[in-house]
Amino acid sequence: MRTAYKCRAYPGPEQAAVFSRTFGCVRLVWNKTLAERHAAYHQRGEKTSYRQTDAALTGWKKTEDLAFLSEVSSVPLQQTLRHQHAAFANFFAGRTKYPRFKTRNSRQTAHYTRSAFRMKNDELHMAKTTTPLRFVWSFDDVEVSTLNPTMVVISRDPDGRWYVTFAVDTDTPEPLEAAGHAIGIDLGIKDFAVTSDGERVANPRHLEGKARNLARYQRRMARRERGSANRRKAKAKVARAHRKVRNARADFLHRTSTNLVRRADTIVIEDLAVKNMVKNRKLARVISDAGWGEFRRQLEYKAERAGRTLVVIDRWYPSSKTCSACGHLLAELSLSTRHWTCPGCRTRHDRDINAAKNILAAGRAVAGERSSGDACGAGVRRQGSSLPQSALKQETRAVRRPA
Ligand SMILES: [Zn+2]
């Protein structure tokens, strides 16, 4: 399994210049390769292989105009070719959109494999730089000097902050002790999540306020003249507000997912078509704020690490309209109905808790079928081998600048 540790980095002026030049070269190689791929496909109907792009890069370095590409480490340039190759494979498989051109205004990254960096004790030496790169390690459970990363990623956010990410191949960790408990989760708009235990996880209110701030700074920036100093200042405020929203959301999702994985051996969620629902513009803001997709991703990798089972049931399962006590299925239940009484057994239901109980029951059915050798039930499927192998350990704590 691969884990990534992301930390704030503080490059000196010389290092910052080297990395900035590298970002520029990575961007150029990505964009030029993308343009040529595009032309090959649309003019001649040809697909481009990784080998061809690599050969083209070697050729560019020999021309007078692009000889400067040899001045930066060749590793990040090669890595960007690999990433683009993978991006096209994903695109052709229908998993992602067509790869886009990179701009200087977005987040900049450079990927270094083992030949282009060196870890000595807790010092990180990057290719083409002369002094170790300063960074702040904030993961208490891992000793930095024992780190043996297979890849190091240097990045710079649009707000000018630098980061270094260490990708580490880890042994599968010890599974958590059995909790003797299973939880069904109903994800929603009003509450972020309601569990089959009857617990409600409210959407973090502070996120809303931060999002409103962000919108205000964006409007302010739009009123400033392009290229002016005021515009630049307004832009920095937007970037900072963005980061605050991002961090607050990540923090909330991490706390919620970790807590659930600790408490239950089996967690059952619905396969929400997040993308489809985001098309509904009125709900779009709330849902993207809620971060369901990211929440599911976190549950997946945390469950896998802890040896827990995550069951994802079909999104068409009528979890809200079914009575969890007797199985009676209502013909209709409007979104605004928060409580209802079952006409079959007269049980009074809270809409969301009832849904969560049904989700749990459906998940149990799948888990049961699985243990008896039948992997897939009608209308339900288990999330298993398709679990992502990589997981990003997001830094969510406040980072202090080193002395
Ligand atoms: Zn009933």
Fold blueprint:
Layout: E1 2-10, H1 13-44, H2 50-61, H3 74-92, E2 108-113, E3 117-120, E4 123-126, E5 134-135, E6 151-156, E7 162-169, E8 182-187, E9 191-195, E10 200-202, H4 205-223, H5 229-263, E11 266-270, H6 274-278, H7 281-290, H8 292-306, E12 309-313, E13 339-341, E14 348-350, H9 351-371, E15 390-393
Parallel strand pairs: 1-15, 8-11, 11-12
Antiparallel strand pairs: 1-5, 1-7, 2-6, 3-4, 6-7, 8-9, 9-10, 13-14
Zinc ion binds next to loops.
Quick summary of this structure?
It is built from 9 helices and 15 strands.
Query: What does the overall shape look like?
Result: elongated
Helix-strand sequence: EHHHEEEEEEEEEHHEHHHEEEHE
Strand-pairing-aware structural class: alpha+beta
* Average pLDDT: 83
**Total individual domains:** 2
Tally of DSSP β-strands: 15
Radius of gyration: 25 Å
Main beta sheet: strand number and arrangement?
Answer: 6 strands, mixed
Distinct helical segment count: 9
Percentage of residues assigned to helices: 40-55%
Distance between the termini: 34 Å
Say which molecules are bound, naming each kind only once.
zinc ion
Instruction: Give the low-pLDDT segments.
Output: 373-403
What portion of the residues fall into strands of 2 or more residues? 15-25%
Describe the structure.
The protein has 403 residues and is an alpha+beta fold. The protein has two domains: 2-169, no CATH class; 182-393, no CATH class. It has nine helices and 15 strands. The chain has helices at 13-44, 50-61, 74-92, 205-223, 229-263, 274-278, 281-290, 292-306, 351-371, and strands at 2-10, 108-113, 117-120, 123-126, 134-135, 151-156, 162-169, 182-187, 191-195, 200-202, 266-270, 309-313, 339-341, 348-350, 390-393. The strands form four sheets. Strands 1, 2, 5, 6, 7 and 15 form a six-stranded mixed sheet that branches. A hairpin with a 5-residue loop joins β6 (151-156) and β7 (162-169). α1 (13-44) packs parallel to α3 and α4 (205-223) runs antiparallel to α5. The longest helix is centred in the middle third of the chain and has 35 residues, at 229-263. The two termini are 34 Å apart. Mean pLDDT is 83; it is low at 373-403.
